[in-house]
Every structure is written in structure tokens, then in C-alpha cells.
Amino acid sequence: MLVPVTAWAQVSIEATPLRVELKTGPGGTYTQTVTLSNHDTNAVRIHASLNDWYLSKDGTPQFKEPDTSMPYSAATWIRVNPADSIAQPGATQVARFTVTVPAGMAPGGYRAAIMFEFSPPGAAGVVSKGVMFRSRLATLVYVTVGSSTPAIELVDVEARQRNGQPPTSVVVATLKNTGHVHVRTKGQMLVYDKAGTMVRKILVPDVPVLPESEREVMIALADEGQASLPPGEYKVELRIDVGLPELLVGETTVTIGK
Questions:
Q1: pLDDT digit string (tens) for 117-163?
Q2: Which domains does the chain have, with CATH numbers?
């Protein structure tokens, strides 16, 4: 991910990886690094901190200060070193983080975010007209503790209009996760015309569905650069794989007008 810091200079920072998924048991320890590359001619101060996070129903990440009362919080389990560093022009910095799972932790899928905030060297941010500017990105950390069986169902499938797009431009699948571990989606969306001929096969996006939550998964009827379907009535069949023995299957009807 490249982040432009336009308040004080055109600076781009790339972080690798942006997602870490690990499995361990209660009392387990795991260490990994995040590489931050400064693709610019300006030095950048990097400050690392920890946040908790969750997803809104439409999949938008929501970050908050560490809160041990938040279900599935893992922010207090992580230590990052160094917390502050300077990335020289064209150089890389490495941040090492260690996850230590408390002993006796119940099986489930926990999570945290390592937040990297960028500013000019020697400054906590940039003030312009009384507003403090900062830029940041996050590496999301998923910690699966022990063994927990997924419990997820497909509760709704409907055609919907996406902002700025033609009517019925996307199909939205609503997934409900009643289990204690997150799952990721994959699979296919098959589109059939009125004669029953399959006219399009579209991959289901790879997205997380967090424990004890509902998530809308949006699947476009046309990929970028792909022609829209001709006017008519279509049957849409979803086959979603979340790691269960059987696929989650649902269908709906889409009518595309002239």
C-alpha cells in the first residue's frame, strides 16, 4: 500500500505485509517483521502503535484505541520495536513485532492492528490553518488461538445498485458468522440467461467475515473493463466457500433494463 502524505511533501510509504494471519495456542509466542519502504527523496518519521479494530457491515475497517473489553481484542498482546524510527530517502525500515497470547485464552479468532503513522522528522504532525495532518496505514494481525469450528450461514442474496453504476450492477451476499473464529470467502457467482445458458462466471472476492458478526460481500456483475450484461432477466447463483464441508449456496434474479 502506498500512502501519499500531501500535507507536507509528496511522500509514498509501502508496508509489507499488510495482513498477518497466525495460529498458536494459549501462552504461545510469535514474532514477525513488517518492512516499510520510503519511495521518495524526503526522510520520514515512522511511529508505530497498536489499535483494536472491527469491520462495519459493508466491510469498512473501524479502528479504536486498545480496549480489553472489546470482544476478540489482541492489541495488548503485541509489542512493536522500534516504536519510532526514521526512514531515509529511498531506504527501508524494519519493525519487529511479537505476539504473546495469554495463558488460558479461550479458543477463537482474535485481532489487532499495527498502526504506522508518518510525519516529517522531528515533528508529530504538520499544522496547516490550525489542522493537524498525519498519514497512516495499518498491518492487520489475525491470531487464531487453539481450534474453533466455523459457524457461518448465507442469510440473504440480493441485487443492488452501486453508487455511480447502472441499476442492479452488483449482487450482495449477506453472511452471518455465529462462531468464534473468522473465515475468508472464495467461490464463484454464476449468471444464467432466461434460456438457462451460463453467460458469465465471476469470482467471489477474498474478504474476511469476523466472529459474531454479519458481513455484506459485494460482487460486481461486470469486472473492470468488462462489458455490461445485455438487457434482460438473469438468474444468479452463488457458491461460496468458507472452509466448511459444504458450500454456501444461494440465488437471486437480476433484471437489467434498457
A1: 988 886 544 444 444 445 889 999 999 999 988 999 999 999 887 66
A2: 2-145 (2.60.40.10), 152-256 (2.60.40.10)
